[in-house]
Design goal:
Largest sheet: 6 strands, parallel
Shape: globular
Structural class: alpha/beta
Bound molecules: S-adenosylmethionine, iron/sulfur cluster
Strand order of the largest sheet: 2-1-3-4-5-6
């Protein structure tokens, strides 16, 4: 929990203000950074004005994310002018991409560190403190040492991320990830299981396994178990009630993984399976490695083993060469699947990727219009999928008091849908049987199931 330290006695402490952009992988990296720097005597604060160290963990997946990070850094210029001892650091994908060039674009920045250099942050900070020199470290170092830093869970937290692999070998034509996070590298299974056991000892009940393509887990280590064996092993860890994972690549999704949804009790009935487009021509140009029919077969297989599975996905509109017909094929695929939720993006050209050199770029206006139509369709589908749950009793793992009302608690179903219902802080961390009364677009409204003597348990 961060403190309002401008108003408190600062004592002899150092304060860290950290802001994270982008995906869960970055969130997990930031948690690791906080753990590392706590050991160095830092405490986190929500107020940048009071910090001794300001750190932005950046994202570069789309141009908008990159611009956001730069403009945020711009806001800290005044603070640096007021306090020359303030250290400003930038990490993550944008830092990796820009490297040395950032120092001239942001002349008041002290440290630029890449996606493979997180474990060296304490050393970098000491160097700046000692001789005040600005510097950049973005070398790819293998094995990636930060993979083995366990982010200390916050008091009372019920869920945690566990990174099981880093990087990606797929080179989808639009994507910067393989360029900025390096080649795929799996983490040894024993280390992962030891971390999950430690998290369970700290009271963590839900783990989300992270990787750009978790289905490829184990391929870089001779004799390593594969992803489904890892899932089964984590399913046996005492105290872990729910397992989730992201992201799964459709081309590598095996029947054994589908079977896990039926056989591993702790594995939650939700999969995030990015499709990107419903047009075979576009999928080919994107270098995705599957066709629309193959994707639909995977969905059918998943629903065979786990009929109630919730399926979410990612779609890019306006990829170079996307015609109205290609776009309609995406809408038609959405009609065939009825996703529970969809993250949709306008194609954003990224330097260094194959698609940056493609012809037939789609005009911005067309992209915006396509995105709008697609999002309207998805809203209908999300509501339709949520309404199926009305009248049913769902196991809801309570995360804490709702942000919208102090009389409500908020939690998640196994299918990862948010449920709000009347209750107090004493329910945090418990799993409650909740009757779903009303489905909305972003959450479900429920009430504790009557007729059950103990609707909530700590398991
Ligand atoms: N590894 C995952 C996968 O294979 O789908 C996710 C990678 S990325 C962090 C998350 C999503 O961002 C992608 O699924 C894609 O839809 C979107 N994305 C990636 N590059 C993009 C680009 N250049 N323009 C627009 N969206 C992009
Ligand atoms: Fe990017 Fe494709 Fe790798 Fe996902 S699988 S991280 S979209 S290159």
């Amino acid at each position: 929990m961060s403190h309002n330290i401008c108003k408190e006695n600062r004592l002899d402490r150092k304060y860290l203000y950290i802001q994270t952009f982008g995906c869960q992988m970055n969130v997990n990296d930031s948690d690791k950074i906080v753990t590392l720097l706590t050991e160095e005597g830092y405490e986190t604060t929500d107020e940048a004005e009071c910090a001794d160290l300001i750190l932005l963990n950046t994202c570069s997946i789309r141009e908008k994310a990159a611009q956001k990070a730069f403009s945020q850094m711009g806001r800290f210029r005044m603070l640096k002018e007021r306090n020359p001892n303030l250290i400003l650091a930038m990490g993550g994908c944008l830092a990796q991409q820009w490297g040395q060039k950032i120092l001239s674009r942001v002349p008041y920045l002290d440290i630029v560190f890449g996606t493979h250099n997180i474990h060296r942050l304490p050393e970098f900070i000491r160097r700046v403190e000692k001789n005040g020199s600005r510097f950049v470290e973005t070398a790819f170092e293998l094995p990636v040492k930060s993979l083995n830093i366990m982010a200390a869970p916050e008091n009372g937290a019920v869920s945690a991320y566990v990174t099981i692999m880093q990087g990606c070998n797929n080179f989808c034509a639009y994507c910067v990830v393989p360029h900025l996070r390096g080649r795929e590298e799996s983490r040894p299974a024993d280390d992962i299981i030891a971390e999950v056991e430690k998290l369970a000892d700290h009271g963590i009940r839900v783990v989300t396994l992270l990787g750009q393509n978790v289905n490829a887990y184990g391929k870089t280590i001779a004799g390593s178990p594969g992803f489904t064996q890892l899932l089964r092993a984590i399913g046996r860890v005492k105290g872990i009630e729910r397992i989730r994972f992201t992201t799964s690549h459709p081309k590598d999704l095996s029947e054994d993984l589908m079977r896990c949804f039926a056989e591993v009790d702790a594995l939650c009935g939700h999969i995030h399976l990015p499709v990107q487009s419903g047009s075979d021509a576009i999928l080919r140009r994107m270098n995705r490695g599957y066709t629309r029919d193959q994707y639909l077969e995977k969905i059918e297989g998943l629903r065979h083993y786990c009929p109630e599975i919730s399926v979410t996905s990612d779609v890019i509109v306006g990829f170079p060469g996307e015609t109205e017909e290609d776009y309609r094929a995406t809408l038609a695929l959405m009609e065939s699947v009825t996703f529970d939720n969809l993250f949709s993006f306008k194609y954003s050209e990224r330097e260094g990727t194959a698609a940056a050199g493609f012809d037939r770029q789609v005009p911005e206006k067309v992209k915006s219009e396509r995105l709008q139509r697609l999002q309207a369709l998805q809203e209908e589908h999300t509501l339709k999928r949520n309404r199926i749950l009305e009248g049913s009793a769902q196991d809801v793992l309570v995360e804490g008091i709702s942000k919208n009302s102090e009389h409500d608690v908020t939690g998640r179903t196994r299918s990862n849908k948010i449920v709000n219902f009347r209750g107090g802080q004493d329910l945090a961390g418990k799993t409650c049987s909740v009757l779903i009364k009303k489905a909305c677009l972003h959450s479900l409204r429920g009430e504790l199931a009557r007729g059950e003597e103990h609707p909530c348990s700590s398991k």
